[in-house]
Amino acid sequence: KLEDVRKKIEILVNQSYIGANVNVSLKQVSAKKITIVGAVSSPGTYIVNAFTTVSNALAYAGELKEYASLRNITLVKPNGERKNFDLYDLLIKGDRVGDTTVSAGDTIIVNGTSKFFKIDGSVIRPMVYEYDNDDTYQDLVDFSLGLNIDAETKNITAIIGRDGRVFSKNVVLSEKIGDQDLLEIFVGKRTSIDDKDIFVTGYGVTSGYFPASGNDFSELLAELKFSSEIYPFYAIYEQINDSGLRKSKVSFSLSDPST
């Protein structure tokens, strides 16, 4: 390390000079030669700077192929030691711990995969992602940045391919994917049923919610205040019944009690 070099030189200098200060700095950083192969558009050998990490190095090899795995990238050392990386830790979770710095002579292998699925419905970021057999459905939902506020957690459906047939099944978030072929996840949405008070709005009238007491309609009108701008007194009463299945509108005149 640079600090170790500085300390060593400082010890040597202090043997001959009293009170001398030692500063050590880098004039030039040596480059490294690495090889990138696999599911990339431009495999080959590249010269990279000393601080290049696995994720940085991928940019040298151009675009990833559509079948490239970001969750199974292998770093092979010159001595044959192999280490696998899951770049979702960085790209989705923001965790750089596994994004190690490459060394001279390293080989990066971008493996291929067919384990892609689409997540749709009441999630924040619907998209196509890559899954692993050890993932839970909660892990996959987290890839999409979580559920929307209207998500129905008891209505999460997975589309599975197995033995030449495609079928759907309801799943729970804690369940693991296992060795099945996952094609899609759909998160259902809750439906809200209106059970609100009467809302009054318009020009020249008190606006807001008023208790739906079930009394005579004229009692509601008696609670409202109107300005002289209410002319020509035309109004509409809209009503939704049967859990939203039926909607009706009735027009009336504020100046004609019979309506």
Provide a descriptive summary of the structure in words.
- With 259 residues, the chain is mainly beta.
- Helices cover 14% and strands 35% of the residues.
- It has five helices and 14 strands.
- The radius of gyration is 34 Å and the shape is elongated.
- The protein starts with a helix and ends in a 6-residue tail after the last strand.
- The model has no long low-confidence stretch (mean pLDDT 90).
Q: Count of helices?
A: 5
Backbone shape: elongated
Radius of gyration: 34 Å
As laid out across the biggest beta sheet, the strand order is 2-1-5-3-4
N-to-C order of helices and strands: HEEHEEHEEEHEEEEEHEE
Which whole number gives the mean pLDDT? 90
Alpha-beta classification? mainly beta
Determine the N-to-C terminus distance: 91 Å
Helix content: 10-25%
Measured by DSSP, the beta-strand proportion falls in 25-35%
Largest sheet: 5 strands, mixed
Low-confidence stretches: none
Q: Count the beta strands.
A: 14
